[in-house]
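User: Earlier you gave me the apo prediction for this protein. Now I'd like the version with NAP bound, so I can compare the two side by side. Same sequence as before, with the ligand SMILES added.
Assistant: Got it. Here's the input I'm using:
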Amino acid sequence: MNRTALITGASKRMGKSLAEHLASKGWNIIIHFNSSEKPAEELEIELRQKYPHQKFARVKTNLVKEDEVEKLIPIVISEFGPFHLLVNNASLFNPGYLKETDTKLFDSQMNVNLKAPFLLMRDFANQCKKGNIINFADTRITTNKSNFAAYSLSKKGLWELTKMAALEFSPEIRVNAIAPGVTLPPEDKDEEYLRNLAENIPMKKPGGLEPILKTLDFILENDHLTGQLLFADGGENLGQNA
Ligand SMILES: NC(=O)c1ccc[n+]([C@@H]2O[C@H](COP(=O)([O-])OP(=O)(O)OC[C@H]3O[C@@H](n4cnc5c(N)ncnc54)[C@H](OP(=O)(O)O)[C@@H]3O)[C@@H](O)[C@H]2O)c1
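And here is the structure of the complex with NAP:
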């Protein structure tokens, strides 16, 4: 097998786990990062040592800047040729009710979480021509809670984009989305914060990374699945039963 995946925001947290998981299954991995240069380098070294017969690389791109975004797929293709999987995992997650959201906050969330995936999906479809795209949404898209207004809107848009692209790019490219719920605490919060949040979801505990990785496998292994959103959220999308 000689399959290659580009994972955005792959140096840490969920993206790193996706990279390690796919590498363990024989994939070559392009680790995209922006500010996390050192963790990206360390992950590349770790993967090279563990899987010496696979190819690994890292690429820095600021997904806020469209000129940089438009160079990303061509850079990957120049090194790896047309590749097989694009995972739009990178994200900005900043709070703000509608009344507090200035244009700077709005633009940053939209650029990283919606516009960059749009441009990358377009370029993947035009230049790689076949394979899989997996977008990371969020279980929040099922609510109208506005405490992360621009973030939530960007992820609602990403889900609409997933369906639109699934239809246009079929049958050569399958496009699906994963909606995590309470998975990892934000970097400035701890596990207890996460456990408290999870008390309000049907499964009553944080899911951790395992359900995300199983969902990823399910999408990749099911070659008739496209335009779907899989909730890996312990039932949070159902709302509260009281
Ligand atoms: N964590 C959760 O519980 C949870 C819940 C629901 C949904 N999700 C979704 O699942 C995905 C992964 O979650 P996560 O918590 O692991 O994400 P995260 O840590 O918040 O962000 C992942 C990466 O996004 C990259 N990124 C941010 N701004 C960027 C920019 N301007 N240019 C390029 N890259 C940029 C960062 O890369 P650098 O560090 O290199 O700058 C960061 O490491 C996200 O799409 C998120 O919305 C997560």
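For your comparison, keep in mind: The longest strand covers residues 173-180.
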